[in-house]
Amino acid sequence: AQFKVVGPGQPLLATVGQGIVLPCHLSQLMDARSMEIRWIRHEFSETVHVYQNGKDQHWQQMKEYVGRTELARDGLSSGSLDLRISGLRPSDDGQYICTARDADSYGEATVDLVVAAPFFRNAHPWMAALAVFLPLSVVSTALGACLFRRKVAQSRALGESFWPLPPAKPP
Questions:
Q1: What percentage of the chain's residues is helix, strand, coil (to nearest 5)?
Q2: 67: domain CATH number?
Q3: Dihedral sign for Cα atoms in the order 12, 40, 20, 80
Q4: 0.85 cut: is pTM over it?
Q5: Which residues cross the membrane (predicted)?
Q6: pLDDT above 70 covers what percent of the chain?
């Protein structure tokens, strides 16, 4: 039977140190226990997790993921290909590809994972922009005030008026 592999359609956000489930499933309700299921990193084309012949094939996965990944087996019979990753690291950030293959078909879906530091776990983009804008505004205002005071002091020292006199009226 033909099938499609379906991912979440939007990036997943997670925090360093926590675990996450990368969701992926077959478009048709079908048993995936006899399929080869492979999760790879798109950027590196390296193996994150392999399930084949009814077993996890840990010897094929990258050493960075050994002991940190688990295919959610309880959903395989209904077409769920979800992958759990524990102890997230900054290096886990990026694009993953979930693939499924049987004797007749092949399909794949992309899952984007964004791993953030704990401090910014709930930060929105406007918060980050504000965090940059406010200090820059304060610094530029202070610098402008300092330069203005310096100009006034120099003008007084030279005996000049900082503010120009109005033009003389003709007689």
A1: 30, 30, 40
A2: 2.60.40.10
A3: positive
A4: no
A5: 126-148
A6: 82
